[in-house]
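Support request from a user on the community tier.

User writes: "When I paste my C-alpha cells into the form, the page sometimes reloads and wipes my input. The last time it worked, I copied everything first. Here is what I submitted, just in case something in the input itself triggers the reload:"
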C-alpha cells in the first residue's frame, strides 16, 4: 500500500504486509524494501535493495523491527506510520494505515505459491502466480557474482533476467484495466479480503 500521491514509491521504498501459510501454520510478515542506486535506463538486470523484515508476532524482536521500519519510512518517504508488531488481518492492516496516513493506494495485491531453496549466500524462490503472470524463478544473493553463478547452475541466462518487481510486471500486463485492478492477481477472486481492499483504498 501507499499514500494517495505514492510518496513511498517516489522515495524508493515498499512497505509490504504478507500472510504466509505453510501446512497448518499461518504467520504475518511485514517487510520494508529500500531501493539501491538506480542503474541507467535499459541496463538494469538486477534489483539492488536493502530489506528489513519481521514476523508480526508481538515478540521483543518484532517490537524493535517495527520501530525501525516506522523510523525508516518517516525518514526516507516523509510518511509517519506506526507499524504494528502484532498480527493483523488484511482489514485491520488497511484500517490502521488509513487512520494514520489517509487515502490509500494499492501498489500490488498478489497471491503466489512459493517453493524456497536456500544456501549460505543465496536463496532461490520458485513462484507461481495466477493469470496473467505465470511462473518465475527469483534469485536472491549476497552479491552480483554469486547471483550470476547461481543462475548459471540453474541453467538460466542472466541476460534474459527481468529486474521489474512483481507488482510492476503485473501492472504492465494489466495496463488495459482500471485501477486498482491493474495490480491485483488472486487465485481465488472470492477471497474475503478483496472486498476490504476495494472498500478501503482509492480507485
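"...and here is what came back when it finally went through:"
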Amino acid at each position: 500500500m501507499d499514500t494517495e500521491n505514492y510518496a513511498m514509491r517516489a522515495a524508493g521504498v515498499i512497505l509490504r504486509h504478507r500472510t504466509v501459510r505453510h501446512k497448518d501454520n499461518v504467520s504475518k510478515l511485514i517487510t520494508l524494501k529500500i531501493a539501491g542506486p538506480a542503474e541507467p535506463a535499459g541496463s538494469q538486470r538486477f534489483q539492488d535493495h536493502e530489506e528489513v523484515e519481521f514476523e508480526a508476532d508481538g515478540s521483543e524482536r518484532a517490537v524493535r523491527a517495527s520501530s525501525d521500519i516506522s523510523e525508516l519510512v518517516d525518514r526516507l518517504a516523509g510518511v509517519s506510520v506506526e507499524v504494528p508488531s502484532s498480527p493483523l488481518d488484511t482489514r485491520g492492516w488497511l484500517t490502521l494505515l488509513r487512520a494514520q496516513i489517509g487515502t490509500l493506494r494499492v501498489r500490488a495485491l498478489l497471491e503466489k505459491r512459493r517453493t524456497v531453496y536456500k544456501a549460505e549466500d543465496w536463496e532461490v524462490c520458485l513462484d507461481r502466480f495466477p493469470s496473467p503472470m505465470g511462473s518465475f524463478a527469483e534469485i536472491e544473493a549476497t552479491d552480483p557474482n554469486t547471483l550470476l553463478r547461481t543462475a548459471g547452475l540453474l541453467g538460466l541466462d542472466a541476460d534474459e533476467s527481468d529486474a521489474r518487481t512483481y507488482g510492476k510486471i503485473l501492472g504492465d500486463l494489466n495496463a488495459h484495466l482500471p485501477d486498482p485492478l491493474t495490480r491485483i492477481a488472486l487465485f481465488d477472486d472470492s477471497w474475503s479480503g478483496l472486498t476490504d481492499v476495494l472498500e478501503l483504498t482509492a480507485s
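Agent notes: The reload is a front-end session timeout and is unrelated to the input. The mean pLDDT is 88. Helices lie at 7-10, 60-77, 90-101, 144-153, 166-173, 192-200. Escalated to web team.
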